[in-house]
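Aim 2 progress update. The chain analyzed this quarter is reproduced below.
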Amino acid sequence: EVGSQLGGDLPGRVEAVEGEQRGGSVQQDDVAHRAGLAGEGAPGDLGVVGRLAADEKAEVMRRFADPAAADGIDVVPVWNKSNREHTFIGSEPQSVFDAAKNAVQELGWTKGWHIDADHIRLETVDRFIPCSDFFTIDVADSIGKPAAPGDVQAFVDRHPELIGTISLPGVSAPFRTTRSDVERVTAKYLLAVQDAGKIYRHIIAAKGEGNVIAEVSMDETDAPQTPVELLIILAALADEKIRLQTIAPKFTGRFNKGVDYVGDLIQFEKEFNDDLAVIAHAIQQYGLPANLKLS
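Predicted structure tokens:
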């Protein structure tokens, strides 16, 4: 696993991705690691498959979360099921909460756990709000769509620190950008960030900011984001006052169901390491939450 090769105390996330239900039992392929790195002293998230049958959720807890906790690893189970998957099978978000609560009670789990409204947008989030406390805000569809030209120029004017040579601890080589580079990246991603802000504010208006864990997802798109693009995105998210705890960029290669990674591992490791350094810098530079993680 790439995550296990990257030392240090930079923020990251260990997550299990959704698998397929097979014959009423939990198969090893049903829980596969997305590359991540739990920062020193920080809990790791264990995503629990929303498509598993109710009795299988407790089995996942027994086989992964409970042994990890016994070994002194602070694991926080996160049950997720996307709006798309609910639509496919005709289920409701409340069913994930109910099954998760039953699994927690059956196991006697006394630590934290969460329900993720996975890959939601403004038009789909409302039915998740009563039963979710973790929200994966998916704005990939807005990437590449134009924001107002005045908004792009205003952003670049606010952030002269993004222009020139940017040297960050832990990054393999300095970033070198011109104003036109930053304008181009901002034009590509600013509308998506603004949409994330609208969704986030809609959620916290209903639940209260202290009751929400926010992830912003930009990974369901064709083109990967470079580390310098991630830095610009994080600056824009900070401008929107989104208290995100997790960011999900698109990496080189693919993460498939039941397969750790398909692609160039050396390039992926470089991107991943640089992204961790970018996150550590953005936390300090832009006042983002100290527990911001990479998903």
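The two ends are 14 Å apart (CA to CA). Confidence is low (pLDDT under 50) at residues 1-42. These observations will guide the mutagenesis experiments scheduled for the next reporting period.
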